[in-house]
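Figure 6 in text form: structure in, sequence out.
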């Protein structure tokens, strides 16, 4: 994606005028900045949309971002700038400046990937980059969300770092028992990595291997930790929403640490998966850094829970709801150790359930007389629960979905909800096609399938009716005609339905179509399709003629506007007029075709014209050879 700078004359001039008065503007509550509208009139706008500097109070709705009191030290919070009129969020592609670097007016702070291009974010003031709040590879950062903090004096950098540490310590005290339990059950987080103690290195994030990919699974690592890697080496195989693709190395070095091991599911795009280094001697330093950080995490993990347990013992429960009393009696709990969240310190049913789910329960201190009944009731409840769990486990089996099937399910649901489906059906005589197939095999020793000839028939019909070779553009709100006839073929694989594309099908012979379809189908079943072999397409064909399916309606594959469902051929008896003009019964093979079309693109006229062209091509099949 090409890099370009924001160089609008009016904006550049405005920035030069306003940059010298940034501090006075930010300290004046009633200051207003005006921008030029489309009609040439001035309208008020926010300073943050113009420069990216956050002008809101330093307590914000953004999660995971630390803010600092303006009374501590002079600083500026830089927000994600709006670098295009339609931009609502952006990705941090690369930081050009590091924490602690001196910055001057016009210096490029970072590269931001917008909805249009990758643009450079320039500094409007001089100072020092004290803290980067949003690291490289961060995705979908809303416009205005803080991304960095700058200071005027180099000595203030330490104050920012200290404030970040203080804020993080305060926030560590907040998690509840349930939060701690959830965190303990999760694998080691790979979204944030402390790189301060690491030697020169590069963090490899989960790549976006297709335009629609937002997460992927690590299918297999082809390189092991410590292996030398060259440019073009295959590091790992990644299962995307379309296929299993290979992730190539763009630089040489050594694979120091695998952050996301084999089998890791739903890794977000941009999330770190590995760390590489230039020198083999730095491998151990990276491994040791990770091992020490994991030990520290294990030592620190129990602390919040301990504090929360101490806190729960001091709770004074004034009231207990009837439902909560039943649960406390059934499980033999000590009500004084439970955290009451209801009004007037009332202990609710949800409070008891939360404590039960957390697994950290305090039994109720009972007398010797009451010990036997309470333990018996607790054992009875436990045995009843285990029996119900056993019955439940026998009743069903969880079948894990692949990443491809998850995306297919999501897309098909979106298609049925957002695309107005129009269904048109027609029967065609299949005998001329079967006769042509037989002649090609006997006379020319060319073996083709019925589906290969159907692809050629559909491609010729799309060429005759170009209005059918189109799609709906949500951005423009109009129909877009496609220049080429690219037909997607539905192929069933173990991981889900794939749609490899036969490009320029109208220009290819039946034998060429046959050989290319076989090659693409084999790649699809092996999960080796390249992105350009399954992305795009202008029309889809789904053929179930090999099964006992007479007819069916397929779901449109967005952004395409059409899919043709092909059923099996059936022999039927129908009247035929012979050369003498006498009507006689005759046996014919009929095939049902059902067209699912986007009604925004297809009306009755276009749909009728396309089916008429299809029927004409089936009846005079040999003209396709011309």
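Output sequence:
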């Amino acid at each position: 994606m090409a890099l370009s700078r924001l160089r609008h004359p009016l904006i550049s001039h405005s920035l030069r005028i306003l940059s010298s008065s940034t501090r006075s503007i930010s300290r004046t509550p009633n200051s207003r900045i005006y921008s030029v509208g489309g009609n040439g009139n001035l309208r008020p706008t926010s300073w943050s949309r113009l420069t990216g500097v956050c002008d809101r109070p330093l307590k914000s709705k953004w999660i995971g971002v630390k803010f600092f009191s303006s009374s501590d030290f002079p600083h500026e919070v830089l927000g994600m700038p709006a670098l295009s009129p339609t931009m609502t969020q952006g990705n941090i592609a690369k930081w050009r400046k590091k924490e602690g670097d001196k910055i001057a007016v016009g210096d490029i702070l970072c590269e931001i990937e917008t909805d249009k291009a990758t643009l450079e974010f320039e500094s409007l003031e001089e100072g020092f980059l004290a803290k980067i709040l949003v690291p490289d590879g961060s995705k979908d950062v809303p416009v205005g969300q803080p991304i960095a903090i700058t200071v005027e004096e180099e000595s203030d950098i330490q104050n920012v770092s200290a404030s970040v540490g203080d804020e993080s310590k305060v926030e560590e005290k907040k998690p509840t028992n349930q939060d701690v339990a959830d965190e303990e059950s999760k694998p080691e987080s790979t979204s944030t990595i402390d790189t301060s103690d690491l030697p020169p290195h590069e963090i490899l994030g989960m790549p976006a291997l297709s335009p629609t990919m937002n997460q992927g699974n690590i299918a297999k690592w082809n390189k092991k930790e410590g292996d030398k890697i060259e440019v073009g080496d295959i590091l790992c195989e990644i299962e995307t929403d379309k296929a299993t693709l290979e992730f190539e190395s763009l630089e040489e070095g050594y694979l120091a640490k695998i952050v996301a091991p084999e089998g890791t599911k739903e890794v977000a795009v941009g999330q770190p998966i590995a760390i590489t280094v230039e020198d083999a001697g730095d491998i151990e330093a990276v491994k040791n850094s990770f091992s020490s950080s994991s030990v520290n995490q294990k030592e620190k993990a129990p602390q919040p829970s301990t504090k929360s347990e101490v806190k729960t013992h001091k709770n004074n429960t004034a009231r207990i709801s009837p439902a909560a009393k039943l649960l406390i009696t059934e499980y033999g709990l000590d009500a004084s150790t439970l955290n009451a969240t209801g009004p007037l310190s009332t202990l609710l049913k949800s409070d008891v359930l939360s404590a039960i789910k957390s697994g950290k329960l305090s039994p109720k201190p009972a007398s010797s007389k009451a010990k036997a009944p309470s333990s018996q009731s607790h054992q009875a409840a436990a045995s009843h629960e285990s029996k119900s769990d056993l019955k439940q486990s026998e009743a069903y089996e969880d079948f894990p979905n692949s990443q491809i099937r998850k995306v297919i399910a999501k897309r098909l649901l979106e298609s049925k909800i957002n695309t107005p489906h129009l269904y048109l059906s027609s029967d065609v005589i299949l005998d001329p096609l079967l006769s042509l197939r037989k002649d090609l095999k006997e006379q020319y020793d060319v073996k083709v399938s019925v589906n290969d000839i159907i692809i050629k028939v559909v491609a010729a019909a799309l060429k005759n009716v170009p209005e059918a070779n189109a799609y709906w553009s949500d951005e423009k709100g109009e129909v877009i005609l496609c220049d080429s006839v690219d037909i997607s073929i539905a192929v069933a694989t173990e991981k889900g339905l794939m749609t490899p594309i036969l490009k320029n099908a109208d220009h290819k012979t039946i034998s060429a179509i046959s050989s290319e379809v076989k090659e693409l189908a084999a790649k699809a079943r092996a999960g080796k399709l390249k992105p350009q072999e399954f992305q795009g397409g202008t029309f889809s064909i789904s053929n179930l003629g090999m099964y006992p399916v007479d007819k069916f309606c397929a779901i449109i594959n967005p952004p395409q506007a059409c899919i043709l469902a092909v059923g099996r051929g059936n022999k039927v008896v129908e009247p035929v007029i012979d050369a003498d003009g006498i009507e006689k019964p005759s046996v014919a093979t009929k095939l049902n075709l059902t067209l699912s079309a986007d009604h925004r693109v297809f009306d009755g006229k276009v749909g009728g014209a396309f089916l008429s062209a299809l029927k004409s091509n089936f009846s005079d099949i040999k003209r396709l050879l011309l």
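Caption detail: DSSP finds 16 helices and 31 strands in the chain.
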